Amino acid sequence: MADTTYLPGLSIRDSDAPRHSSIVRVTHWINTLSFFGLLVSGIAILISHPRLYWGETGSVGTPSLIDLPIPFVLKNQNGWGRYLHFLSAWVAVLNGLLYVSSGVLTKHFRKDLLPAKAELAWVSFSRAVVSELRLRRRSKDESLTYNVVQRLAYPMVVFVLFPLVIWTGLAMSPAITSVFPALVNLLGGQQSARTIHFFVASALVLFLLIHVAMVYLAGFTNHVRAMITGHSAARKGNA
Amino acid sequence: MNKFSRRRLLATGLGTAAGASGLAVALHLADQYGLIPPDHGGIYGVGETLTYASQRLLMSQGSAAREFDRSQISKVFQVNGEPPKGETFQRLRAGNFAEWRLTVDGLVARPASFSLAELKGYPSSTQITHLACEEGWSFIAEWTGVPLSHVLNLAGVLKHAKYVVYFSLDPGWWDSIDMPEAWHPQTLLTYGMNGQDLSVPHGAPVRLRVPRQLGYKNVKYLSRITVTDNLKKFGSGLGSAAPEFGYSWYAGI
Predict the structure, then answer these.
(1) Is residue A93 over pLDDT 80?
(2) How far apart are the C-alpha atoms of B235 and B175, rounded to whole Å?
(3) Residue A10 has pLDDT above 60, yes or no
(4) What is the mean pLDDT of chain B?
(5) Does domain B67-244 have CATH number 3.90.420.10?
(6) Could you read off the pLDDT of A14-55 as tens digits, one per residue?
(7) A163 touches chain B (CB under 8 A)
């Protein structure tokens, strides 16, 4: 690239164009915090009744879909668990709305995050997947944009998993479903909503683990710095 | 200080002032329209207030909890907790609740008390609704009783009433609901379940059904109802026993 200046240990495409925009950086870390709150409190709520059912109802003495290998706790933690879960959910949803609307308005999704048609062609797609699986370190230029695996994973998380986890969460609320009964009826019942909520949350946790592992393999310090300051490495002149 | 940064400082100052007064006006309006829950304090109170206010606005048309077919009634009806151990409850239970009375007082024109037979004499209402425990389990049952609104009308609720507080014969258990929930046709003084008298494990003689909220708002072994405009006078002022144990007052979830 013509505008790439190569300094030892540094790769700078354009000293003024950040790798991540400020809105992406701020919403990323707010999301990190709220997701952590949701995860901890979600586990606290789950362990007071670690059985999952299908349909409208389910309780001790009825057949379950899955018995999670967790003992029933005697003193449940749902008090602070729910307070923290809903506080974090509000932060996650409002923050997510900011992120999505800015991503649409600035065309960040269209330009940077959605896969191009050519990338989805089988040969190039399989090459990218194999390269990810081999945990090959990416070149400096490559790490300035998103590859096709990321261009599939991130939109999946933003446009499928997060909306699903919010939907199934709302579908468990008797007050919300009194206004929008279809929210829960479409899922097959309140206990089905709870079960799907658990699996979608698990998928998000799996994504988080892979995401952090990939950041680690690609150069933890550099990538975390890019998500905090906006730049992969120190700016020219500030180095 | 150059011109640019002064302008920026001015804009930031004006913006902050506008934001702060906007928030103050919003909170005042929210309080006036009954959109602030009693447990609004602290950092968790922010989430609670957002949840309660937005759900109350969504439900302002009096939406009804989902009702089900008779074929969807559960086979198992899980129970949490034990009946009250006190002498009063044991005596009432031994007499098949013939001596039991439900007291209605507070901000009402005609404080009164009702026997079980009197409640059963009023026009009854039956619903097949879902009861979800905050722990995660749930069942569907058929509930029969008299709408709370009927009894409130008999007592004549005064204009400035804001909440209905209700007490169990179990001295540690009391709760409250706002007036929209209290007047709601599905909010039921329930004395029958699945075509029979309500059993003791499920809250005999009378349990309040609030099907748009979680199980713990559905207080069993009811003994007294007080209409009020101020929840601060009750317990620790958080609106029910639940927040004193760390649970939210509003349980529409």
Answers:
(1) yes
(2) 10
(3) no
(4) 94
(5) yes
(6) 556 788 899 999 999 999 999 999 999 999 999 999 999 999
(7) no
Q: Which residue of A has its CA nearest to B243?
A: A79
pLDDT at residue A4, rounded to an integer: 44
Rounded to 5°, the CA angle B100-B183-B81 comes to 45
Q: Where are the domains of chain A?
A: 5-229
- The class (CATH top level) of A5-229 is mainly alpha
| Inter-chain touch A62–B75, beta carbons under 8 Å | yes
Distance from CA of B156 to the nearest CA of A (A): 27
Residue from B68, B77, B130, B184 whose CB has the most chain A CBs within 10 Å, to mutate:
B130
> Which residues in B lie closer than 8 A to residue A56 (C-beta atoms)?
68, 72, 130, 138, 140
* Residue contacts between A and B (CB atoms, under 8 Å): 118
Q: What angle do CA A222, A226, A228 make, to 5 degrees?
A: 120
CB B131 within 8 A of CB B218: yes
What is the structure's pLDDT at A142?
67
Enter the ipTM.
0.91
pTM: 0.89
Angle at CA B40, nearest 5°, toward B57 and A42? 85
Per-domain residue ranges for chain B? 67-244
A59, A95 Cβ separation under 8 angstroms: no
Minimal C-alpha gap between A57 and chain B (Å): 5
pLDDT at B2: 58
Mean pLDDT (whole number) for B174-201: 98
Give me the DSSP letters along B127-138: EEEEEE-TTS-E
Least Cα distance to A172 among A42, A60, A68, A71 occurs for A42
Q: Do B212 and A83 touch (CB under 8 A)?
A: no
Q: Using DSSP bridges, classify how beta strands B101-106 and B112-115 pair: parallel, antiparallel or unpaired.
A: antiparallel
| Cα separation values, B250 from A221, B37, B151, B152, Å | 44, 7, 23, 21
pLDDT at residue B193, rounded to an integer: 98
- From chain B, pick out residues whose CB is under 8 angstroms from the CB of A59: 74, 76-78, 133, 137-139
Complete DSSP assignment for B169-200: SSTT-EEEEEHHHHH-TT-EEEEEETTEEPPT
